[in-house]
Design brief:
Three copies of one chain form a homotrimer. With 315 residues, chain A is an alpha/beta fold. Chain A has two domains: 136 residues, Aspartate/ornithine carbamoyltransferase (Rossmann fold); 157 residues, Aspartate/ornithine carbamoyltransferase (Rossmann fold, 3-Layer(aba) Sandwich). Helices cover 40% and strands 15% of the residues of chain A. Chain A has twelve helices and nine strands. In chain A, strand 3, helix 5 and strand 4 form a beta-alpha-beta unit. In chain A, helix 2 crosses helix 12. Chains in contact: A-B, A-C, B-C. The interface between A and C is medium-sized, with 24 and 29 residues.
Amino acid sequence: MSSSLTNQHILSVDQFNQSIIQDLFSLTEQMKLYKQNKQIRTVLNGYVLGNLFFEASTRSRMSFTSAFLYLGGQVNHTTGVTFSSISKGETLEDTINVIQSYCDVIVLRHSELGTAKKASQVSRVPVINAGDGIGEHPTQALLDLYTIFDEKKQLDNLTITMVGDLKHGRTVHSLARLLCLQKNIRFIFAAPQIVQMPEAIVSDIKSHGFQVELTDDFNAAISEADVIYSTRIQRERYENPSDYETFDGLFTLTKEKINHYCKPDVTVMHPLPRTNEIKLDVDALPGAAYFRQAANGLYVRMALFCSVLGKEING
Amino acid sequence: MSSSLTNQHILSVDQFNQSIIQDLFSLTEQMKLYKQNKQIRTVLNGYVLGNLFFEASTRSRMSFTSAFLYLGGQVNHTTGVTFSSISKGETLEDTINVIQSYCDVIVLRHSELGTAKKASQVSRVPVINAGDGIGEHPTQALLDLYTIFDEKKQLDNLTITMVGDLKHGRTVHSLARLLCLQKNIRFIFAAPQIVQMPEAIVSDIKSHGFQVELTDDFNAAISEADVIYSTRIQRERYENPSDYETFDGLFTLTKEKINHYCKPDVTVMHPLPRTNEIKLDVDALPGAAYFRQAANGLYVRMALFCSVLGKEING
Amino acid sequence: MSSSLTNQHILSVDQFNQSIIQDLFSLTEQMKLYKQNKQIRTVLNGYVLGNLFFEASTRSRMSFTSAFLYLGGQVNHTTGVTFSSISKGETLEDTINVIQSYCDVIVLRHSELGTAKKASQVSRVPVINAGDGIGEHPTQALLDLYTIFDEKKQLDNLTITMVGDLKHGRTVHSLARLLCLQKNIRFIFAAPQIVQMPEAIVSDIKSHGFQVELTDDFNAAISEADVIYSTRIQRERYENPSDYETFDGLFTLTKEKINHYCKPDVTVMHPLPRTNEIKLDVDALPGAAYFRQAANGLYVRMALFCSVLGKEING
């Protein structure tokens, strides 16, 4: 399949449009079927992924790794602790210049904003941003969007309630921007004022003609939702710990709250890991989609690798 | 091959009976032949192992990895130091819930007792316990038993002398229980009183009708043995270091002691790593089986993966 | 292909002669073509590399790994931080004795001189020295020599200027010795006196009948060069930091210096990582070969694995 993503770096959700996303999600569906039917894919035989995690991230690293392996490729990975060349004072650009010769595509996770772009500027092989500090993590946004599609069987005409720390949450920022490519989305952002969605993103959404509501009334916010997207409220973000204490618990989803306040077919998502935001008793509810969401990361990344490497999938 | 282990979690030696073990060992023999003849196996093509070592263990991790690779499978592994999700406060259950979507079988090593069982309760893919603290390490017991079989060409009618720290040694406990499935085993446990075999295990063995002798006379104990199973005496287990000094050396196997006290065809085993328990001059003796024992770990684990994943082996 | 390297340990550049090197470089050329044409190699299907990095080295580890993977093999690796068996007091020999059963070839990096040899004495599978402290790193010397051949299309009749810390630089020592197998090489060693090439190596080169010049006049030294081989001047090597300050910068290659002093077709090499020895503006010059040099590491190691494992390459 020659895709418009072939040989492209994947740095930001801004690269995607409706047509790219439709192609990608249709490929994602295929991947899910292959995996579930235990069909063996060999499309990436002879390909090597350079899986560079300058910052540890078990889930993302293992998800990218398995996505590549299940397509018949091989993975050459490294993690922060073993990055000896960096500790010897090498620049990121030099590291990438060398490692691109050892692989066919690079996945890069780094704690510093802008690292993925820097890498892409020297790399002849495609670079996929797997999170660069407070920057983007575009494949997370793709898998989030795919999960909404997979759970609701539609991407338009939905009320999406995002809750938790919306100020620092890289995932909610990127997902909000991807949702702006859809039609008739109503956004509800429920957070303590101190960690509400940044004004720049709110303006951006409004400029696309969408309705945005900001609130700290958690129960009201979830009652309207087709999809609740919860993120961690990080205690360390509060200058005054007592502020945190005030909110803690108010923004926690429980089975009782969901049964009491939410639509019967509400979908609950979370990028994981969770701590206290979603109680264990929610897990058994049919709308608890966060583990399916994590599983979708595998399929979306399989589809992305095929697209970026320009590989045809033969049913 | 449809085995009674197909799709089973492997948590404890209590799951095994004579028939399971015979099937497994016959498969193990096949695996050894394949490996030694450098025949290429592809039976696990398209399969991914999630090799989760929350606690470092070079030998076990590499043994499981190569076992999977030699069958044509792929390995996605992680080790304690890079377990970022745990450090972010995620529960083991959540981690397993996510990672099971990225693989077909999980091998789990953890420092806490009961972890493997906990993981198995949420995992749809088989979980193999690769050691959970003072708990079990069932594949070690299997490879130990296989090594006895391989060295002696029989599992019945043997005198097995276990020496060293029998109190804390997870491997000797599990092996003793597996040996209770055999016929006419005489057990000699030679250890300083302070680290002798726990009474519960001794009773258990006796309830199976076997003869058990406890002693701290090392030389007498090894003189009766068909198999000597040595384990590390850990200095740190002694409240009073001078107790340790008293025993140190008394329980060390040397070529001289073996030639002087032991049966000519005695087999010497050790789970490794060894420190001072077996002197280097023992290595050249024909009965020094500990490196063959380590090699058997590969074949037993290959057999176990095939059984658990229900794969037919075509000669 | 049955090579004279088949089943040999690769410990030192002293093992190589002209005929071995010619065979190896001709195989290296083939490997480069395969890789560049994205041809899939399966020659190492069913083989496992034990990639043992007791000391971290991102570049070398990833280069060996990808070399093995691109030939269809599998890699079982471990790095210093996870070497639990060593931390439990196991000897290197015992570790190797066990791990050789889990793989078909071992690559070993260690901080201590002589480790590779020690490992080779107990290993039935070939051991490749990937650097042991101040000892050798023979595959680095091979890829350096191959790069000179690849850039200059000849190995004889060249002036090779080595600059930087020539005293502690393992790579320049090994490369100098390999160059002694060629004809009519003129060596210029440009370094502050305190880190000049050891007298033993200088004598050795002279005993082969080659001309050697030692200097601290950097600009003169590079003006004669067909090839400049630059290495890091390590600040920590100077007892008196002000000595370092005196030299710092004098031995730095810049585009301006190269354009002003050097032959138009000069080749610039560096084992990487670089810090201040070569300015970024050099990168764009046609003679800046250091990233191609790093890439050549992949092809040379692919050729070496085939030779050591005695594998035929079918075009």
